[in-house]
């Protein structure tokens, strides 16, 4: 019955018998028979089916909650009975947003792989969100916690931002003395799918919300960072992207007395998101534990 519950959970996650069948390497008719069997065994209609979509019934929602608990309990029991010190091995598939992956993750991969020679890593630097349920990804590293309550999340680091420009740009166009003056500068922007972009600033009890605009927008940070280095404007990006560039003089910090952020609350924290309960594949646990330690250095 647990295998049928797993099939039911996958159908709900993907919203389709055919998609679940493809992921589970089963025939769609076999998936349907398993769902029919569950409905017969529990004497309840779990799914409303139409040609366009599947919808959970009230009984189906209750069943889904219980099925997930039973499946997780089984996985926990199996893991508890196995050797907890088993050597991490196998393929680890990671999706990480481009800037963080390039600056923080890729440089530490060789050391991790040297520690665990039975592990192979496949990494994708992608600024698009991924669905860990339907895509072949073990760990997704993103800004912000998971909106999907079935995913686990481990905070890796706070994502504070800095406001910077090159010395040449500031010499030519002036150094802003207060946040409002940014309205008169060319600001290099992250594409956040909004009609207007605002930068936020705090200093003590003061708060400023400043509309900004510029001639270059990018979904990832690398293009606008390069533009700032080459005197194209003022940029607000994660501090971990710009620390070395500030130290070597490629960029100059602007408005150092103010704390900038990309949203009113904060610029978000960076999390590792992964599927499963408290117990997981040893390679996933090993990599996340390694990340937390490595990023504190």
Share of β-strand residues: 15-25%
Largest sheet entry: 5 strands, mixed
**Structural class, from helix and strand content?**
alpha/beta
Task: List the strand order in the largest sheet.
Answer: 4-3-5-15-6
Tell me the overall shape. Answer: elongated
Q: Could you list the spans in which at least 5 consecutive residues all have pLDDT below 50? A: none
CATH class category name of the largest domain: Alpha Beta
CATH topology group of the largest domain: D-Maltodextrin-Binding Protein, domain 2
The string of secondary-structure elements, in order, is HHHEEHEHHEEEEHEEEEHEHEEEH
Q: Any idea what the CATH architecture of the largest domain is?
A: 3-Layer(aba) Sandwich
Compute the separation of the termini in Å: 47 Å
Number of domains: 3
**Mean pLDDT metric:** 88
> Radius of gyration in whole Å, from Cα?
24 Å
Number of helices: 10
Helix percentage = 25-40%
- Number of distinct beta strands: 15
Keywords: DNA-binding, Transcription, Transcription regulation
Family: Belongs to the LysR transcriptional regulatory family.
GO molecular function: DNA binding; DNA-binding transcription factor activity
Protein name: Transcriptional regulator, LysR family
